[in-house]
Design a protein that fits this description.
Two copies of one chain form a homodimer. Chain A is of the alpha+beta class. The first copy, chain A, contains five helices and three strands, in the order H-H-E-H-H-E-E-H. A three-stranded antiparallel β-sheet of chain A has the order 1-3-2. The interface between A and B is medium-sized, with 34 and 34 residues. Chain B binds a DNA duplex through helix 3 and helix 4. Chains A, B: Keywords: DNA-binding, Transcription, Transcription regulation.
DNA sequence: CTTATACTTAGCGAGTTGGCTAATTTTAAA
DNA sequence: TTTAAAATTAGCCAACTCGCTAAGTATAAG
């Protein structure tokens, strides 16, 4: 195949989102970013965390790769913008599955495969 | 300190849940489990996945440690039960944060620290 | 031009993850 | 009692994660 299908891209995208949410520091960054109105410079974010600035940069990179934040450079400052819609759409979308009733009968009499 | 505080326990619990959700196979197990009514044997789960049975067992162990499934042994079969409430409470609870308005003014004139 | 500021990139190292096969355990069937 | 089935545990290994420090880049200030 020459290119991944749309469905494969979405699965890959979802995987990046959940992997991004797997670390407490990254979840924390998103919360702080939201609390501060959805926009902060890299320095303001780094200042608020115990880990070193390069470590924070790498966390931000993963959030960016997952599409959960975008960057906007201006002068020598680099701002990060929360992509709230994507967070709630992807993670919330997956989670919403579990509000739905089950697809099949829990215990069918003909329990084939 | 002799024991972790309640808040620390909850943070630790949330971390286990999000780490459990970080792998596509584990998310898939939860979805299949829900679709089949919330209860399946280890064998039925293992059959539906490409990876080996021991690998699936380990995924199930992580889901169990996160409190997302519980086990019920009966004879030589081991059933896994979906803990749907915990999944939606913990993951959904964190996500719900982002439906709330921001805590502080996005761009206060006195941009201190 | 030189220096400081704001960040990122490079690269190291300990620890974790996730795949596998082989071996073991437990219970049911013959 | 022997054999088969269901599942887990043990242990190996390559790959990834995430912390760090040091070095580099780009822009603004002096």
């Amino acid at each position: 195949m020459t290119h991944p299908s749309r469905a494969e891209q979405e699965l890959e995208a979802m995987d990046l989102v959940f992997k991004a949410l797997a670390h407490a520091s990254r979840r924390h960054i998103l919360v702080v970013l939201h609390a501060r109105g959805g926009r902060m410079t890299a320095g303001d974010i780094a200042k608020r965390f115990a880990c070193s600035w390069p470590t924070t940069t790498r966390h931000l990179r993963k959030l960016e790769e997952a599409g959960l934040v975008t960057t906007a450079k201006s002068g020598r400052e680099n701002s990060y913008l929360l992509n709230q819609d994507r967070l709630t759409a992807v993670a919330g979308g997956w989670l919403a599955w579990f509000q739905q009733p089950a697809l099949v009968n829990p215990k069918t009499p003909s329990e084939t495969a």
